[in-house]
UniProtKB/TrEMBL annotation:
Name the UniProt record assigns to this protein: TonB-dependent receptor
Organism the protein comes from: Hymenobacter profundi
Outer membrane protein beta-barrel domain residues: 394-802
Keyword Lipoprotein in record: no
Signal peptide limits: 1-24
Key words, A-Z: Receptor, Signal
Length: 834
């Protein structure tokens, strides 16, 4: 029986999300032709599929499986074995196992519908912990099971994403997928107001203890919004749907992160309740130095800047969810997620600009001063969503759903600065020569309504259709006051740098997707999505209005072939996708906290269109799994960051333009192995070549990029788990800039006690040095700049968590639809939403 249980665990872990044929055990009839056995596993009460149930074919006596597999998401399975008589065992967590006697002959045999009855066993005050692999390679995504990684305890979402395969997160929190920043980050498959503003800051607000997994989708299907040319990143928060009352409390202390968190869940009969709440405080100090050489007419300008940063922030994050299932075929959901956050960033800036030789026309450019800058960003964000799902008893795979969501994000981006002259330049004893204060009130509102319908046909053919409306309204009201010492008695409004910007974006979409099989080896999904976008923008003042609209038809294709050898598949996916610029790219607000380097958005940006192609190979065995993919991406009209030079003011100006064509080709390999009991080792390698070409700038930029990561977990003495994670990212390239790489590593040791209800975890991250240097080089015809940012990364955390409550293993969790607004180009460390 031991072999049987081990086989089922491996099939469930490695074959999750895909019907996989297992290796047959050697028999005396190994040379004979195998017979195909098929069937579908359903819930006995509601006749719904039981996704990923495990099935095993055993001999009449003994416990060593002849074949085994995990069902696909529709409950279907396929096994092959030589002719003979066997025992077919079907099982899944929360159900009573079922055993059937099966006789295989020369022809294929279909078991039809096999039902499982839900168990009602009391589990008492215990915690059921499944041993998941740290990383899973599924047919359409890579899944990083963050809850299985002890080194995440007490950290933030930014720490979790940094360790997710295929993703890069730099010191500022900017996220890239396979070298592309054109991606969409979701929470529980939904857009969130929490992520609508500054993405880098938002990722620091989500505690790692509340994250179950991170899913990376490189080529989403037609049912997803046709955005995110680089892909979609979905942060899955923890949930609990078991009958009974249970919860957890936790606390973490460290030199960079501290948090207090808890959760309470309850379910009685048809009604379920989930909740979680956390308070946190983070601090991220750093320092930077930069130099820039300007090529002036007959002279050279040299800019030197040194900055000390101290960034810190705190707040709370919480969510509440309600479910109500009045009948076996209908269910309602209501969810609320919100946060309040206040961040403060203090900067001490030293600025010196010199022009050589000293020509009279450039005398006004020479400057020497220091600035004390304080930026405050209080924000409040929330999402409210509701849904209804209807299934049909006579057709298990038939489903209809209606969903709605309303999100609000409100933030104030305030800063004040005091500028001091160099002591040798002070004439009247007062070094304060200039003051500035600015406030940007940003308000984002988004309403989404969608409906989806799934209709099954004979065999495994399925039609999915849906329609959706997304209504966005963004307001940005910004103003700036200045005061020059000795010239003014009070602050005065700067009208050139103050305005109000209103932006509306409405998206109407419809899609259709057909999934079917050809014979025993091939399965296909063909889909098409049509999206109409209507954009309106308005500034206060004359000539401040603009409007744009466009219609896009975006096809998708997915094909899978089961190879002759069991457990091996080939896959091909193609998608044409669109990238709309979000408000971060459009907002014309001018950031002049550093007058030598300013930035602003471009309201005239148009969307990108991208072709994606991905070929993959998957295989697994009892102790190992491997996924290899080759991919290509081509983007026309690419939105790129562009720096220009203002020679009158001797400053660089950064904005965004549709100014380049971008091409990427690459390969990705993920492998995992369990060489001995209790030890798991995994690794990821991603290699790609990026080529950018801009006719307008008469410039090309290309680079070979790579990132590698490794992870391992070892469980010893039953109560102890040691884990290790390390990664290196070789940097990335932009049209005018190149960035250096960085590395990351962490160690964790977890001790479980109090009858497996409590954990004590010690984590150490990047502990052999105090921090990491991030270097950037930018080259234009008018200047060359080099910067170095040192980010303090060393951190140590001690975390404690305690689980409590009694649960029943009642009916399994109902499958529920959710909104997925992954349709707009996200900002990086700047403003996503206004």
């Amino acid at each position: 029986m031991k072999h049987y249980i081990t086989y089922l665990l491996l099939a469930s872990a490695l074959g999750y999300g895909h019907t996989v044929q297992a290796h047959s055990a050697p028999t005396s009839t190994a040379q004979s032709t195998s017979t195909r056995l098929t069937g579908t596993v359903l819930d006995e009460a509601n006749k719904q599929p039981v996704p990923f149930a495990t099935v095993a074919l055993l001999p009449p006596t003994g416990d060593k499986p002849v074949a085994g597999a995990a069902c696909d998401e529709k409950g279907s399975f396929v096994l092959t074995a030589p002719a003979g008589t066997y025992r077919l065992v079907v099982s899944f967590v929360g159900y009573t196992s079922r055993t059937e006697t099966v006789t295989l002959g020369a022809t294929a045999k279909d078991m039809g519908q096999l039902t499982l009855a839900a168990t009602s066993q009391k589990l008492g005050e215990v915690t059921v912990v499944g041993e998941k692999p740290l990383v899973e390679a599924r047919p359409d995504r890579i899944v990083y099971n963050a809850e299985a990684d002890a080194t995440n305890t007490g950290g933030t979402a930014s720490d979790v994403l940094r360790k997710t395969p295929l993703l890069n997160v730099d010191a500022d929190g900017n996220v890239q997928l396979r070298g592309s920043s054109n991606l969409r980050v979701l929470i529980n498959n939904k857009p969130s107001a929490i992520l609508a503003g500054n993405l880098a800051e938002a990722l620091k607000q989500i505690p790692a203890d509340q994250i179950k997994a991170v899913e990376v989708l490189t080529t989403p299907s037609a049912k997803y919004d046709a955005e995110g040319t680089g892909g979609v990143v979905n942060i899955v928060l923890k949930k609990n749907s078991l009958q009974g009352v249970n919860g957890r409390v936790g606390v973490a202390v460290g030199n960079r992160n501290q948090n207090l968190n808890g959760a309470l869940n309850a379910r009685r009969g048809k009604v379920g309740f989930t909740s979680s709440l956390s308070g946190f405080y983070n601090q991220y100090p750093g320092r930077s130095n930069s130099s820039r050489t300007d090529y002036l007419d007959g002279a050279i300008g040299q800019l030197t800047q040194n900055t000390e940063n101290k960034s810190r922030g705190g707040g709370g994050f919480g969510k509440v969810g309600l479910t109500f299932d009045p009948t076996e075929q209908s269910g309602f959901t209501l969810d609320f997620t919100g946060n309040a956050y206040h961040s403060v960033n203090d900067q001490d800036l030293f600025n010196e600009y010199r022009v050589l030789p000293q020509l009279e026309q450039y005398n006004s450019l020479d400057t020497l001063y220091t600035r004390d800058i304080r930026q405050r960003t209080p924000s409040r964000n929330y999402d409210v969503s509701a849904g209804y799902t209807r299934t049909f008893k006579d057709q298990p795979r038939r489903e209809w759903s209606v969903l709605g969501q309303h999100s609000v994000s409100r933030s104030r981006q305030n800063y004040t600065l005091d500028q001091f002259r160099a002591p040798e330049l002070v004439e009247n004893g007062n070094p304060l020569e200039y003051q500035e204060r600015s406030e940007n009130l940003a308000l984002n509102r988004e309403t989404t309504i969608q409906t989806d319908y799934v209709h099954p046909f004979k065999g495994k053919t399925t039609l999915e259709t849906g329609a959706k409306a997304i209504l966005r309204q963004v307001n940005s009201d910004y103003d700036l006051d200045t005061l020059r010492t000795g010239q003014q008695t009070d602050f005065a409004r700067n009208d050139l740098r103050s305005n109000a910007f209103d932006y509306r974006q409405n998206v109407l979409a419809a899609y259709g997707s057909l999934g079917f099989s050809l014979g025993k080896k091939y399965s296909f999904t063909l889909g098409t999505r049509a999206e109409y976008t209507d954009i309106k923008g308005e500034f206060v003042g004359e000539n401040g209005r603009f409007r744009n609209d466009y219609l896009n038809v975006l096809p998708t294709l997915s094909a899978t072939r089961n190879l002759k050898k069991d457990g091996q598949t080939l896959g091909l996916t193609y998608a044409r996708r669109i990238q709309r610029p979000q408000i971060y790219f459009l907002n014309p607000y001018v950031n002049q906290t550093d007058p030598r380097n300013i930035s602003y958005g471009n309201p005239e940006l148009r969307p990108e269109l991208t072709q994606n192609l991905d070929v993959s190979y998957n295989t697994y065995s009892e102790k190992s799994s491997l996924t290899l993919s080759l991919y290509g991406r081509r983007t026309n009209n690419s939105i790129e960051s562009v720096l220009t030079y203002n020679d009158t003011l001797a400053r660089s100006e950064s904005t965004f333009q549709n100014i380049a064509n971008s091409s990427t080709i690459g390969s990705n390999l993920y492998a995992s192995v369990r060489p001995v009991k209790g030890l798991q080792i995994g690794g990821n390698v991603d290699l790609n070549y990026v080529h950018l070409k801009s006719v307008a700038l008469n410039r090309t930029s290309s680079r070979f990029l790579y990132n590698v990561s490794a992870n391992s977990s070892y469980k010893f003495k039953e109560k102890y788990t040691a884990q290790f994670y390390a990664g290196y990212y070789a940097g990335w390239v932009q049209l005018q800039s190149r960035n250096s790489g960085y590395y990351y590593y962490s160690l964790g040791l977890k001790r479980t006690f109090l009858n497996d209800k409590a954990d004590l975890t010690l984590n150490a991250n990047t502990f052999l040095q105090s921090g990491i240097n991030f270097r950037n080089t930018t080259t234009t015809p008018n200047f060359v700049s080099r910067s170095n940012f040192f980010s303090y990364q060393r951190s140590v955390r001690l975390s404690f968590s305690y689980r409590f409550g009694k649960v029943d293993s009642g009916a399994p969790q109902r499958r529920r639809r959710s909104i997925q607004n992954n349709d707009s180009k996200s900002g990086s460390s700047g403003q996503q939403g206004g």
